[in-house]
Write a structure and sequence with these properties.
231 residues; mainly alpha; Serine Threonine Protein Phosphatase 5, Tetratricopeptide repeat; 12 helices; 0% strand
Length: 231
Amino acid sequence: MSAGSFLTRWWNTIKPLPGEASHRVTAQRRRQRRLIRRTIGIVVLTGAAWYSYSYIATAPERANAQLQSGMQRMQPGAYREAITRFDRAVSIRPELAEAYLERGIAHHFLGETEPALADLDKALDLNPDLAAAYSERGAIYRERGDTPKAIEELSKSIQAQGTTDGYYQRGQAYESLSQHHKAIEDYDQAVAQLREAPYVYRARALAKEKLGDTEGAKRDRAKADSIETVH
Protein backbone atom coordinates (compact mmCIF):
# COMPACT_ATOMS: atom_id res chain seq x y z
CA MET A 1 0.00 0.00 0.00
CA SER A 2 1.37 3.43 -0.93
CA ALA A 3 1.72 6.22 1.60
CA GLY A 4 -0.91 8.20 -0.26
CA SER A 5 -3.45 5.34 -0.08
CA PHE A 6 -2.81 4.85 3.64
CA LEU A 7 -3.34 8.56 4.39
CA THR A 8 -6.54 8.60 2.32
CA ARG A 9 -7.97 5.65 4.25
CA TRP A 10 -6.91 7.20 7.56
CA TRP A 11 -8.62 10.49 6.66
CA ASN A 12 -11.80 8.68 5.70
CA THR A 13 -12.00 7.17 9.18
CA ILE A 14 -12.00 10.57 10.87
CA LYS A 15 -13.65 12.94 8.36
CA PRO A 16 -17.07 14.11 9.51
CA LEU A 17 -20.14 12.34 8.32
CA PRO A 18 -22.97 14.44 6.94
CA GLY A 19 -24.43 16.38 9.85
CA GLU A 20 -21.74 15.28 12.33
CA ALA A 21 -20.33 17.98 14.60
CA SER A 22 -16.82 19.04 13.71
CA HIS A 23 -15.70 19.09 17.38
CA ARG A 24 -16.19 15.31 17.56
CA VAL A 25 -13.82 14.88 14.60
CA THR A 26 -11.28 17.19 16.24
CA ALA A 27 -11.35 15.14 19.46
CA GLN A 28 -10.91 11.92 17.51
CA ARG A 29 -7.94 13.39 15.67
CA ARG A 30 -6.31 14.41 18.98
CA ARG A 31 -6.77 10.90 20.35
CA GLN A 32 -5.25 9.35 17.25
CA ARG A 33 -2.31 11.76 17.34
CA ARG A 34 -1.66 10.95 21.00
CA LEU A 35 -1.74 7.25 20.15
CA ILE A 36 0.68 7.72 17.25
CA ARG A 37 3.07 9.78 19.39
CA ARG A 38 2.93 7.17 22.17
CA THR A 39 3.59 4.34 19.72
CA ILE A 40 6.54 6.18 18.18
CA GLY A 41 7.92 6.89 21.64
CA ILE A 42 7.74 3.23 22.63
CA VAL A 43 9.44 2.17 19.40
CA VAL A 44 12.23 4.73 19.84
CA LEU A 45 12.81 3.82 23.49
CA THR A 46 12.84 0.11 22.70
CA GLY A 47 15.32 0.64 19.90
CA ALA A 48 17.56 2.80 22.10
CA ALA A 49 17.46 0.24 24.90
CA TRP A 50 18.39 -2.57 22.54
CA TYR A 51 21.22 -0.55 21.04
CA SER A 52 22.57 0.29 24.50
CA TYR A 53 22.40 -3.34 25.58
CA SER A 54 24.16 -4.51 22.41
CA TYR A 55 26.83 -1.81 22.75
CA ILE A 56 27.58 -2.72 26.37
CA ALA A 57 27.49 -6.46 25.68
CA THR A 58 30.07 -6.19 22.91
CA ALA A 59 32.41 -3.88 24.86
CA PRO A 60 34.86 -6.64 25.93
CA GLU A 61 35.17 -7.90 22.37
CA ARG A 62 35.67 -4.43 20.90
CA ALA A 63 38.20 -3.43 23.57
CA ASN A 64 40.16 -6.64 23.09
CA ALA A 65 40.24 -6.05 19.32
CA GLN A 66 41.81 -2.61 19.90
CA LEU A 67 44.27 -4.12 22.40
CA GLN A 68 45.37 -6.78 19.92
CA SER A 69 45.62 -4.19 17.16
CA GLY A 70 47.88 -2.07 19.37
CA MET A 71 50.09 -5.01 20.31
CA GLN A 72 50.61 -5.78 16.63
CA ARG A 73 52.05 -2.26 16.27
CA MET A 74 54.51 -2.55 19.16
CA GLN A 75 57.60 -2.09 17.04
CA PRO A 76 59.98 0.77 16.22
CA GLY A 77 58.27 3.49 14.24
CA ALA A 78 54.77 2.40 15.22
CA TYR A 79 54.65 2.98 18.99
CA ARG A 80 52.59 6.15 18.67
CA GLU A 81 50.05 4.32 16.54
CA ALA A 82 49.99 1.51 19.11
CA ILE A 83 49.24 4.05 21.84
CA THR A 84 46.26 5.30 19.83
CA ARG A 85 44.85 1.75 19.78
CA PHE A 86 45.41 1.35 23.52
CA ASP A 87 43.66 4.71 24.07
CA ARG A 88 40.63 3.31 22.27
CA ALA A 89 40.75 0.10 24.28
CA VAL A 90 40.65 1.89 27.65
CA SER A 91 37.97 4.29 26.43
CA ILE A 92 35.78 1.25 25.73
CA ARG A 93 36.79 -0.69 28.87
CA PRO A 94 38.42 1.53 31.53
CA GLU A 95 39.02 -1.56 33.68
CA LEU A 96 41.21 -3.33 31.07
CA ALA A 97 44.53 -3.57 32.96
CA GLU A 98 46.45 -5.10 30.03
CA ALA A 99 45.75 -2.04 27.86
CA TYR A 100 47.30 0.27 30.46
CA LEU A 101 50.27 -2.09 30.74
CA GLU A 102 50.91 -2.13 27.01
CA ARG A 103 50.41 1.62 26.70
CA GLY A 104 52.90 2.11 29.52
CA ILE A 105 55.45 -0.07 27.74
CA ALA A 106 54.91 1.89 24.51
CA HIS A 107 55.46 5.18 26.34
CA HIS A 108 58.63 3.72 27.87
CA PHE A 109 59.95 2.76 24.43
CA LEU A 110 59.38 6.37 23.37
CA GLY A 111 61.32 7.65 26.40
CA GLU A 112 58.18 9.06 28.03
CA THR A 113 58.77 7.67 31.50
CA GLU A 114 56.22 9.75 33.44
CA PRO A 115 53.23 8.69 31.29
CA ALA A 116 54.68 5.17 31.33
CA LEU A 117 54.76 5.03 35.14
CA ALA A 118 51.24 6.49 35.35
CA ASP A 119 49.91 3.75 33.07
CA LEU A 120 51.82 1.02 34.90
CA ASP A 121 50.49 2.27 38.24
CA LYS A 122 46.93 2.18 36.84
CA ALA A 123 47.46 -1.33 35.48
CA LEU A 124 48.58 -2.53 38.91
CA ASP A 125 45.67 -0.78 40.62
CA LEU A 126 43.38 -2.87 38.43
CA ASN A 127 45.43 -6.07 38.64
CA PRO A 128 48.01 -6.26 41.47
CA ASP A 129 49.26 -9.62 40.13
CA LEU A 130 50.43 -8.20 36.79
CA ALA A 131 54.09 -9.26 36.97
CA ALA A 132 55.09 -7.53 33.72
CA ALA A 133 54.02 -4.15 35.10
CA TYR A 134 56.37 -4.50 38.09
CA SER A 135 59.18 -5.56 35.75
CA GLU A 136 58.63 -2.54 33.53
CA ARG A 137 58.62 -0.20 36.50
CA GLY A 138 61.83 -1.85 37.68
CA ALA A 139 63.45 -1.22 34.29
CA ILE A 140 62.48 2.46 34.43
CA TYR A 141 63.92 2.89 37.92
CA ARG A 142 67.15 1.19 36.84
CA GLU A 143 67.46 3.65 33.96
CA ARG A 144 66.97 6.49 36.43
CA GLY A 145 69.76 5.13 38.59
CA ASP A 146 67.47 4.19 41.48
CA THR A 147 68.72 0.61 41.79
CA PRO A 148 67.23 -0.16 45.25
CA LYS A 149 63.78 0.87 43.97
CA ALA A 150 64.35 -1.20 40.83
CA ILE A 151 65.17 -4.27 42.95
CA GLU A 152 62.04 -3.68 45.01
CA GLU A 153 59.87 -3.60 41.89
CA LEU A 154 61.58 -6.63 40.34
CA SER A 155 61.10 -8.55 43.58
CA LYS A 156 57.37 -7.82 43.39
CA SER A 157 57.38 -9.08 39.81
CA ILE A 158 59.07 -12.31 40.86
CA GLN A 159 56.64 -12.73 43.73
CA ALA A 160 53.71 -12.34 41.34
CA GLN A 161 55.24 -14.68 38.76
CA GLY A 162 58.83 -15.89 38.70
CA THR A 163 60.14 -15.64 35.13
CA THR A 164 63.55 -15.89 33.47
CA ASP A 165 63.45 -12.20 32.58
CA GLY A 166 62.44 -11.15 36.10
CA TYR A 167 65.30 -13.05 37.73
CA TYR A 168 67.76 -11.91 35.06
CA GLN A 169 66.81 -8.24 35.44
CA ARG A 170 67.09 -8.39 39.22
CA GLY A 171 70.44 -10.18 38.88
CA GLN A 172 71.64 -7.32 36.69
CA ALA A 173 70.49 -4.82 39.31
CA TYR A 174 72.40 -6.69 42.03
CA GLU A 175 75.45 -6.73 39.76
CA SER A 176 75.34 -2.94 39.47
CA LEU A 177 75.58 -2.84 43.27
CA SER A 178 78.50 -5.34 43.18
CA GLN A 179 76.35 -7.87 45.05
CA HIS A 180 77.66 -10.75 42.95
CA HIS A 181 76.48 -13.58 45.20
CA LYS A 182 72.87 -12.35 45.03
CA ALA A 183 73.21 -11.84 41.28
CA ILE A 184 74.38 -15.44 40.81
CA GLU A 185 71.44 -16.72 42.89
CA ASP A 186 69.06 -14.91 40.54
CA TYR A 187 70.90 -16.15 37.45
CA ASP A 188 70.59 -19.70 38.82
CA GLN A 189 66.84 -19.21 39.11
CA ALA A 190 66.72 -17.71 35.61
CA VAL A 191 68.37 -20.72 33.95
CA ALA A 192 66.19 -23.05 36.00
CA GLN A 193 63.21 -21.36 34.31
CA LEU A 194 64.78 -21.37 30.84
CA ARG A 195 67.94 -23.40 30.25
CA GLU A 196 68.38 -22.23 26.66
CA ALA A 197 69.19 -18.60 27.54
CA PRO A 198 72.82 -17.86 26.56
CA TYR A 199 72.70 -14.25 27.82
CA VAL A 200 72.00 -15.50 31.35
CA TYR A 201 74.99 -17.86 31.27
CA ARG A 202 77.22 -15.03 30.06
CA ALA A 203 75.97 -12.73 32.83
CA ARG A 204 76.55 -15.44 35.41
CA ALA A 205 80.06 -16.03 34.00
CA LEU A 206 80.92 -12.39 34.60
CA ALA A 207 79.62 -12.53 38.17
CA LYS A 208 81.56 -15.71 38.89
CA GLU A 209 84.71 -14.22 37.41
CA LYS A 210 84.43 -11.22 39.72
CA LEU A 211 84.24 -13.63 42.66
CA GLY A 212 87.34 -15.47 41.45
CA ASP A 213 85.51 -18.56 40.16
CA THR A 214 87.43 -18.81 36.90
CA GLU A 215 86.45 -22.40 36.16
CA GLY A 216 82.76 -21.70 36.77
CA ALA A 217 82.93 -18.69 34.48
CA LYS A 218 84.59 -20.80 31.78
CA ARG A 219 81.88 -23.45 31.99
CA ASP A 220 79.10 -20.85 31.69
CA ARG A 221 80.71 -19.26 28.64
CA ALA A 222 81.11 -22.66 27.03
CA LYS A 223 77.43 -23.39 27.71
CA ALA A 224 76.40 -20.07 26.14
CA ASP A 225 78.56 -20.79 23.07
CA SER A 226 77.04 -24.25 22.63
CA ILE A 227 73.48 -22.87 22.79
CA GLU A 228 74.23 -20.14 20.27
CA THR A 229 75.93 -22.66 17.93
CA VAL A 230 72.87 -24.90 17.92
CA HIS A 231 70.49 -22.01 17.31
